[in-house]
Amino acid sequence: MSPLLVLIGLISAPSAALPGSAGAIHVDPRPVAAGKFDPASRARHGELQPFTGFRARRPEKRYSVTVPIGKPKPAVALPRIEGPADARLPLVVIDAGHGGHDPGAVSPHDGSREKDITLALARAIRKDLLASGRVRVALTRADDRFLVLEERYGIARRLKADLFISVHADAAENQDASGASIYTLAEVASDREAARLAARENKANIINGVDLGAHSGDVSAILLDLTQRETMNLASDFARLLQREASDEVEFRTTAHRFASFIVLKAPDTPSVLFETGFVSNKDDVAFLVSPAGQKKIARGVREAVQVHFARQIAER
């Protein structure tokens, strides 16, 4: 005998809007509708164990089905803000790309993993920024853990950060490709390589075909918001500044500032950049990225850019 299939489609329905008692949906199964499955909606699949969490009753000549729903996933814990205890100072959130089960790009030369490189760089940048005494700093992750892309920029938004820097390391089939680059958000990629990189980084949420971030279509629509436009302009200004201030310490690509639709950069109210610090596929680049001396140079370049960025904002007030 085939098992009973109950498919409940919830399209953009907040839990507060669900009928019935908290944590459950009550359904009258008598009206039966046949329809085509809509892949745009999200369906939660699972098997109901016999007589477990499933009740059918017929009160007052009406049938009903009660299906318990699990509690929503709690928001990721906010990291500690470090630096001077002065809330007036700018807050910079540093995001070490990848982590946990997601190693990111892996070097064919020494096996170095992007997730380890980015964490070491994030820590070095934090140390240099804190030494300046002019900003407060928070890391999205301070250890080897996985965060979906929305959680990363969500941390910056919840902390009301003034700047968000996501640190990464690139890889290419051509092992001669080298140099750092800085990406900012745009609806259309600046070139095919930028589009390729955005597609790769945006897949960080997808494990075994399941989108762990489950970002909705309104994320792209948010680009039309005027606040987002101003934020994008500030991010582009910082990207150009970062290239200028860090050029003495870091080798950049010929076209260093690029644009693409990176999910991690889509905070509407936090200027955000993705800093590709080099290529793990390039022997010289990866040696620079894993060396303490190279990490210090990158950190100094970021520090100089951050200080000039906020000094400009103060001067323009």
Provide an overview of this structure.
This protein has 317 residues and is α/β, with parallel strands linked by helices. It has 2 domains: 72 residues, no CATH class; 226 residues, Zn-dependent exopeptidases (Aminopeptidase). It is built from 7 helices and 11 strands. The strands form 3 sheets. The chain has a 6-stranded mixed sheet with strand order 5-4-6-11-7-10, with helices on both faces. A 3-stranded antiparallel sheet has the order 1-3-2, with no helix packed on it. Strand 4, helix 1 and strand 5 form a beta-alpha-beta unit. Helix 5 crosses helix 7. The longest helix has 25 residues. It is globular. The termini are far apart. About 11% of the residues have low confidence.
Describe the structure in brief.
This protein is α/β, with parallel strands linked by helices and 317 residues long.
What tags apply to this protein structure?
317 residues; alpha/beta; Aminopeptidase; six-stranded mixed sheet; 31% helix
The description of the largest β-sheet is:
6 strands, mixed
CATH hierarchy: architecture of the largest domain = 3-Layer(aba) Sandwich
- Quaternary status: single chain
User: Mind telling me the CATH superfamily name of the largest domain?
Assistant: Zn-dependent exopeptidases
Residue ranges: pLDDT <50 for 5 or more in a row? Answer: 30-37, 39-52, 207-212, 215-220
Termini distance? 73 Å
The share of residues in extended strands comes to 15-25%
CATH topology of the largest domain: Aminopeptidase
Q: Please give the share of residues in helix.
A: 25-40%
Mean pLDDT: 81
